[in-house]
Each structure stands twice: as structure tokens, then as C-alpha cells.
Amino acid sequence: MKTATKVALALSVSACASTLAYAQMKPEDAIRARQSVMRVIALNFGPIAQMAQGKMPWNKDMFVANALRIEAIWAMQPTRFFVPGSDHPVAGAKIASFTDVRPEVWSQADKWKAAAGRMDEAVAGLAKAARGADEAAMKAAAGALGKSCGGCHDDFRKK
Ligand code: HEC
């Protein structure tokens, strides 16, 4: 087998394996994964939101670094971690398990997908503003991103 073929094969096998791994993930692991991703995104978004609101001085380097990290972390597609059976805390799980998810994630799947799609767009907008390193674009993109977080939380996260 040619090396290129071997590499392509190895890549496609590992891609399948990781898709399977998400589907078979234990509910408590999935809950922890999505909450961790959300938290890391929030940690990166915090200073950007503050800059956009004028509560922190414009810091181009911080904006670019944080925005590009948000892009990379959202690219993990955390909606995959909303696996069936992860709509309630898992009794007796090894790791503490609580969840604020609402069952509408599964019962209103189209609406959920649309909310995730709006986040895709908002993250792309933020990354574009970061690549231009532009303060005005940052403000608009940060506002749009904040709306997409809040919009999804309103419908799919318990208060
Ligand atoms: C597509 C829907 C969706 C979008 C978009 C979204 N979230 Fe969430 N988020 C959720 C859901 C659902 C939960 C509850 C998860 C759980 O408790 O299992 C959550 C939980 C969280 C949590 C709490 C995590 C924890 O440890 O309990 C934080 C913080 C958070 N989101 C921040 C954000 C920020 C910041 C954004 C935007 C930059 C965002 N989210 C965008 C759906 C979304």
C-alpha cells in the first residue's frame, strides 16, 4: 500500500472511531464535556464582552487570542455532547453529575439545530473581526455572539 493511501485510511478510521466514541459516550462524561467546553468558551468571551461594553480598554492582542480560541473550541462541535440519556443527572456516576439542560434539546431538535447554527455564524463573525483586528467589528461581533449564547440558553438551559 502506498504511504498516502495508508495515511488516508488511518485518518478515515480515526474519524469514524471518534464519531462512534461521541455516540457511545456515557451520559455523565457527555455532561461534563459540554459543561467544560461552555465554561472555557465563557472564560474567553468574558474579556471580549467587557471590551465591547467599554468596561475594559481595547486590547487587540487579547481580543484576537480569545476570539480565535473561541473559534477553535466551538469547532469541537459541543452539540455532540448532548447524547441521548444525558437530560438528567446520573445517579451513582463516578463524577459528580448535574445538568441544567432542558429536554427541549431532544424534543425540539430543529429549533436546537437552528440555535447552534446561529452560534456557528456568530463565532465565524467574531473570528473574522479578530482576523481584521478591528475594534468596531469586535463590538458588533461580540454583541451578536452574546445574543446567540443568550438565545440558546433562554430556550434550552434551565434558569
Ligand atoms: C446551542 C445552544 C447553546 C449555545 C449557542 C450556547 N450555550 Fe451555553 N449552554 C447550553 C446548554 C444547553 C447548557 C446547559 C448544559 C448542561 O448543564 O448540561 C449550557 C451551559 C453553559 C454554561 C454553564 C456550564 C456549567 O458548568 O454548568 C456556561 C458558562 C455557558 N453555557 C456559556 C455559554 C456562552 C458564553 C455561550 C456563547 C459564547 C454559550 N454558552 C452558547 C447551550 C448553549
Could you walk me through the main structural features you see in this protein, from its secondary elements to its overall organization?
By secondary structure, the protein is mainly α. The protein has one domain: Cytochrome c/b562 (Four Helix Bundle (Hemerythrin (Met), subunit A), Up-down Bundle), CATH 1.20.120. 70% of the residues lie in helices and 0% in strands. The chain has helices at residues 3-23, 27-52, 60-74, 104-107, 109-132, 135-156. The structure holds heme C. Heme C is lined by residues 31, 34-35, 38-39, 41-42, 45, 99-101, 115-116, 119, 145, 148-149, 152-153, 156-157.
Q: Portion of residues in helices?
A: over 70%
Bound molecules: heme C
CATH homology group:
Cytochrome c/b562
Would you list the SSEs in sequence order as H and E?
HHHHHH
CATH first level: Mainly Alpha
Low-pLDDT windows of residues: none
Radius of gyration from the alpha-carbon trace, in angstroms: 18 Å
Strand content: under 5%
Short description:
The chain has a single domain, classed as Cytochrome c/b562 (Four Helix Bundle (Hemerythrin (Met), subunit A), Up-down Bundle).
Features:
single chain; about 160 residues; mainly alpha; Four Helix Bundle (Hemerythrin (Met), subunit A); binds heme C
List the helices and strands and how they pair.
Layout: H1 3-23, H2 27-52, H3 60-74, H4 104-107, H5 109-132, H6 135-156
Helix pairs in contact: 2-3, 2-6, 3-5, 5-6
The structure holds heme C.
